[in-house]
C-alpha cells in the first residue's frame, strides 16, 4: 500500500487513467468490429464508409498512446486489404 501522500495520489491517478484507457480500447475494438461486420456482409461501399470512420478512431487512440502506432497501422492495413478483396 502507498505510504506517502504523493504515492497515494499517484495510485488514484493510475486507477483513473487505467479506466479511461480501457474505455478507449473498447471504442477501438468496437470500431474494428463494425468494419469486419460490414466486410462479412459483403457490401464494399458500406464497408469503405465505415472504414473511413474507423480510421479516425484508430488514429486518435494511437495518438493518445493507448495503442502503439504500428498496431494502429496494422489494423488499418488488414482492414483495407479485406475491403479491397471484396471487389475481386
Radius of gyration: 18 Å
Per the principal axes of the C-alpha atoms, what is the gross shape?
elongated
Shape-level CATH architecture: Up-down Bundle
Could you give the order of the helices and strands? HHH
Which structural class do you get from the secondary structure elements? mainly alpha
What portion of residues is helical? over 70%
How many strands in all?
Answer: 0
Number of helices: 3
Q: What is the straight-line distance between the termini?
A: 59 Å
The CATH superfamily is known as: Ribosomal protein S20
CATH class: Mainly Alpha
Number of domains: 1
Pfam family, one: Ribosomal_S20p
InterPro entries: Ribosomal_bS20 (IPR002583), Ribosomal_bS20_sf (IPR036510)
Keywords: Ribonucleoprotein, Ribosomal protein, RNA-binding, rRNA-binding
Region (Disordered): 1-28
Question: What does this 3D model show about the protein?
Answer:
Helices cover 86% and strands 0% of the residues. With 88 residues, the protein is mostly helical. The mean pLDDT is 95.
Topology:
Elements: H1 5-41, H2 44-63, H3 69-87
Helix pairs in contact: 1-2, 1-3, 2-3
Keywords:
single chain; 88 residues; Methane Monooxygenase Hydroxylase, Chain G, domain 1; ribonucleoprotein; rRNA-binding; RNA-binding
